[in-house]
Structures are given as structure tokens and as C-alpha cells.
Design goal:
Layout: H1 4-36, H2 39-75, H3 82-103, H4 105-114, H5 118-152
Helix pairs in contact: 1-2, 1-5, 2-3, 2-4, 2-5, 3-4, 3-5, 4-5
């Protein structure tokens, strides 16, 4: 019996959580927070939002990596299509960016909010915004590779 349906479900569900959450935060929540909240409230909001969202992202990253590697092992790395290898590379880059966001600017944001250093908090939030934007672009490329790769590569 193949695990393909289960691993594909886990993979796509986890991608939906991570990428959908980034899209919502970047395209919907950020502009709304800029419109209606002053910097101290906005930075507190983002600290709370990221605290919850990043817990889900860690789980999603584990599921994406585990399910993707399971598919590669089942198929055999040498027999897997080239676009699967490209998806793995792009996914690993995205995961490294997320880990950097979590351990560097997010940590700085939490520390800044704790001591009410709004300037430092704003700088940390801006860095997170830039890296989330980069990860959204990489996610779009990865989705294109996943869906169109067999015809384009």
C-alpha cells in the first residue's frame, strides 16, 4: 500500500497553513494594523500574532519536510522528477529564512516590546516584513514548480 494520498494531504495542508498565514499577515493584517493602530499597540499586536502563528509554522515546517522526504524516499531520490528536487531546495531555503526570522528579528521584536523600545521594535518588525515578503515570492515560485514543473522542467 502506498502512503502517497496521506503524505500529499499532510504536505498540502501544511503548505496551506504556512503560506496562507503569510499571505493573510502581509496582505490583510499589516495594512489594517497600519491604518488603525499606533506603533505601541501595533507592535504588541504583531508580537502576539507571531507568537501564535509561529507555533503553527514550526508544526507545518516539520510536516512539509517529513511528508516531502517520505515521498522522495518512497520514489527513490534518483528516480524522483527534477522538479521535486527543486521543490526541496526552495522549501529548505524558505525554512532557513523562517528559522532566521524566528531566532533573530522576532526575538528582537519580543525584547523591544517587553522594554517598550518602539524604535527597535519597528526595525525588527520591518525586517520580518521584508523576509516574509521574500518567503511569499519563494512560495509562489515553489507552487509554480510543484504544479507546472513536469511540463516546464
Amino acid at each position: 500500500m502506498t502512503l502517497e494520498p496521506l503524505t500529499l494531504f499532510i504536505h498540502l495542508s501544511s503548505v496551506s497553513i504556512w503560506v496562507g498565514g503569510m499571505f493573510f499577515a502581509y496582505v490583510c493584517l499589516r495594512p489594517a494594523a497600519l491604518e488603525v493602530l499606533e506603533p505601541p499597540q501595533r507592535l504588541r499586536l504583531w508580537g502576539a500574532v507571531f507568537g501564535r502563528f509561529f507555533t503553527w509554522v514550526w508544526g507545518a515546517v516539520a510536516m512539509i519536510l517529513g511528508s516531502g522526504l517520505a515521498r522522495l524516499v518512497e520514489m527513490g531520490f534518483a528516480h524522483a522528477p527534477i522538479h521535486w528536487h527543486l521543490m526541496l531546495l526552495l522549501g529548505l531555503i524558505m525554512m532557513a529564512i523562517f528559522a532566521h526570522v524566528y531566532f533573530a528579528p522576532y526575538g528582537a521584536l519580543k525584547r523591544a516590546v517587553a522594554v517598550e523600545d518602539w524604535k527597535a521594535g519597528g526595525a525588527a518588525l520591518n525586517r520580518i516584513r521584508q523576509l516574509v515578503g521574500l518567503n511569499l515570492v519563494l512560495a509562489g515560485v515553489t507552487i509554480a514548480v510543484a504544479t507546472l514543473g513536469r511540463w516546464l522542467i
